[in-house]
């Protein structure tokens, strides 16, 4: 049986160490325990229900039958599906317990079934399939007081435990139960993971755990400093980002692998790792909204992971700092909607992507400006990276889009090298006298890179920057040039580039492709076959660029259309198929969510700025900002 509801038909629940996807039919069809990058026990989303699923729904519901309604409980990651049937109404509430006071996170999923009206017969059908659906574990019923317990032991010794106060029947590798719930009655199922050789997670009261989890997320949401008109959207998007911030400080790009960028095609990638680019940008976004603890955790991770061996800098790592992310294909999984291959690991880990230096430096400066004190360890890392980049910046690379075609002199990469020196000089200034010579050298290099980009990355005739030196194609990453301060937003080369991207990379609905995809090998910059959807992050970057060049109304209108691509729960994947009007790619994706949050913030900053000027203000005062942090970008905007 196919489990292919649309990507946007899923909800994310999580505990920050891992996350699960629950679809509208009441099926959990993606779950890796205990960590985001552990082998999935439910991989049904990449195949069929036989690759691992757990469904709780009214008895007799067909595979395509879905709940009447769904929503998150307040500002939490607890999702509730309501089923209204001829016999009555039932709520199924799904969540993962949040961390204890001592920071322990239990690897559990809890599902509470509650009668609202009438009496409804329900069925729970658990098909655990460890190893990404490859294995049928050994199932056994265990005697227990007041509850039945099912154990499912995998070949590697891991055990999945299911507890619930109903009788289970074991059949063909599944554990089923059928029970009737009447108005006011509730029961809870708890699924726990026990790693081989470790003790079984402690039982906890599922109802108390539900209250604690909701409170945990609500308290976190309450710290948000944003008070503007998009508050609900901003909070949901920040919660989604927070769900991807592992307690060890690493941040995954998305909790999934291989949800396709084009249905039925091969652009399927594993995102359950920490990209320096995506993680740095996530941190900048969180800091912008007042969240510093995640930034401190990330710096700790960075110093342990990158600081440990900065000479061999990678562009991405495992959550635990792993360097070896070798790519492999899981040939037993047919893929989401037959989109093969399903990939594990990511060969992009071995690429040279020069932009990551710039994104790191931006995040470190944002964190510093938000009030996190400088440390000698961070300074040392910046110095090592800066010295290293002196010998690398003029190389060709794979760029931020991680092309699998030949390396090029990508303009965005070069600009981000300029950004690195620009922000690194600010980071190290006033620190210690013996840096003066280095900072002078870096200052000269900053000017040299700037001049190099203007001379080789700008097409005078078409009045636009190009994707790479000597190329004619465009790249939506060029929309970031005004945002990072490479040139002022009112520079005609910036305005020309924004307009060229709009002209050449827009989809019919006005969203943006990241670059042109071609099918002939010699034109094919990314080295891949097939095409892809509109890239949501780039579309939000277009809004940002429009705000910065003074076209705020147009930006607001585009933002409204973009936010409508999020699902009913406010979640977004990486891309959007403008024809089918469906989300594409890994889900939910940090890059999309942080871009959405950044644009909401920028629109609000621009609105406040205009209001302040209209009221006769001469300059934009720090106190009017919708957050506690001063960014270079706002300094620039204030001067315009
Ligand atoms: O499209 C080709 C590339 O797609 C993935 O990379 C994209 O996702 C990354 C994580 O969000 C992001 O950092 C990058 O900018 C995106 O292009 C994939 O991970 C790559 O392996 C693949 O080449």
From TrEMBL:
Its cofactor is phosphate. PANTHER family: GLUCAN 1,4-ALPHA-GLUCOSIDASE, TREHALASE. It catalyses: alpha,alpha-trehalose + H2O = alpha-D-glucose + beta-D-glucose. Residues 6-136 form the Trehalase-like N-terminal domain. Its EC number is 3.2.1.28. GO terms for molecular function: alpha,alpha-trehalase activity. This is Trehalase. Belongs to the glycosyl hydrolase 15 family. Residues 229-595 form the GH15-like domain. GO terms for biological process: trehalose catabolic process. It is an enzyme of class 3 (hydrolase). Keywords: Carbohydrate metabolism, Glycosidase, Hydrolase. Pathway: Glycan degradation; trehalose degradation; D-glucose from alpha,alpha-trehalose: step 1/1. InterPro entries: 6-hairpin_glycosidase_sf, 6hp_glycosidase-like_sf, GH15-like, Trehalase-like_N. It comes from Streptacidiphilus jiangxiensis.
